[in-house]
Design brief:
This protein is an alpha+beta fold. The chain has four helices and four strands, in the order αβββαβαα. A hairpin with a 5-residue loop joins strand 1 and strand 2. The C terminus is likely disordered.
């Protein structure tokens, strides 16, 4: 997985978008405007798409108090994510980047994801040589060996 969610965007949103494919809220003259955080997030999404086949689709997920995650799937099957504090910002950034947002990570999107050895070892844990799951008796962060 491409790690793009290291730092959430936390600046004030520009406004509520009219939809996932619409630009950020417009001003009185009808021109689309976006704040710096939304523009920066859109730049990260565009960079991901450019690096992975020239386009991407996204799925939005609520993370609770942490905000919202856009899971991105590039044209080449690579995947990554970006996290932001508000749903409106995530949708506006995706629209600004020209990415289609799906409300669910459906079968069609999932079938496009290409996973490698790293993801498979993480999913299987200790079964195929991945990191072991700590036992109930082992405090987190220790190896469990004497």
């Amino acid at each position: 997985m491409v790690g793009m969610a290291d730092t959430p965007e936390t600046e004030t949103p520009a406004g509520t978008p009219t939809g996932a494919s619409a630009p950020a809220a417009g001003d009185a003259g009808g021109k689309a405007t976006a704040d710096r955080g939304t523009t920066r997030l859109a730049g990260r999404i565009r960079a991901f798409a450019a690096e992975h086949g020239g386009s991407a689709d996204a799925s939005i997920a609520h993370l609770g108090v942490s905000g919202y995650r856009l899971v991105l799937v590039g044209a080449d099957g690579a995947w990554g994510d970006v996290v932001t504090d508000e749903r409106e910002r995530a949708l506006a950034a995706a629209a600004l980047a020209g990415v289609t947002v799906h409300e669910a990570f459906d079968g069609e999107m999932a079938s496009r994801v290409r996973t490698g050895p790293y993801e498979w070892s993480r999913m299987a844990g200790s079964q195929i040589g991945g990191p072991a799951n700590p036992s109930a008796d082992t405090p987190t962060g220790t190896s469990g060996t004497p």
